[in-house]
Specification:
single chain, 147 residues, mainly alpha
Length: 147
């Protein structure tokens, strides 16, 4: 191979690698990273929610739920995103997991203390969190599907 052909081949390879690495940080790739972490959270939380049982088991279930929320909040925070809009969704999702975990812990404490008022307040917060989650997920999906 002559020197000019070799130079062209190296330049073409370098250009291709630049395109590929730039594509890894594209909106679609970043969306996929955030959605993957959110889906993992949803899957684990659904599994925990389905494992019901006696009253004592439900308190243990809520503790597992809260622990999982804390873990997934950190996972969401650790996703590296450059897109400012996605960073906003990332913060909202992480904040949601944190507030839901706190409400779950409040519910656990209220259940152990047999505090009906506390249980109702925590349940109200959890219900609000469910609506917020729907809104955040819908916003992420809309943004990520837009061209």
């Amino acid at each position: 191979m002559s020197l000019s052909r070799r130079t062209c081949a190296i330049a073409a390879t370098a250009f291709s690698l630049t395109i590929l690495t730039t594509g890894c940080n594209s909106k679609v790739a970043q969306c996929n990273k955030l959605i993957k972490v959110a889906n993992a959270a949803t899957t684990e939380l659904k599994t925990i929610s389905k494992s019901g049982g006696s009253k004592g088991d439900r308190i243990k279930q809520m503790e597992q739920f809260s622990t999982a929320l804390d873990k997934h909040s950190k996972a969401v925070q650790n996703v590296e995103l450059e897109d400012e809009q996605l960073q906003g969704f990332q913060k909202r999702l992480s904040d949601l997991y944190i507030s839901t975990s706190k409400a779950s812990n409040g519910m656990i404490a209220a259940a152990k203390a047999k505090n009906i008022k506390g249980l109702k307040a925590s349940l109200k917060t959890l219900s609000s969190g469910a609506k917020t989650e729907t809104d955040v997920v819908s916003s992420i999906n809309s943004y990520c599907q837009a061209k």
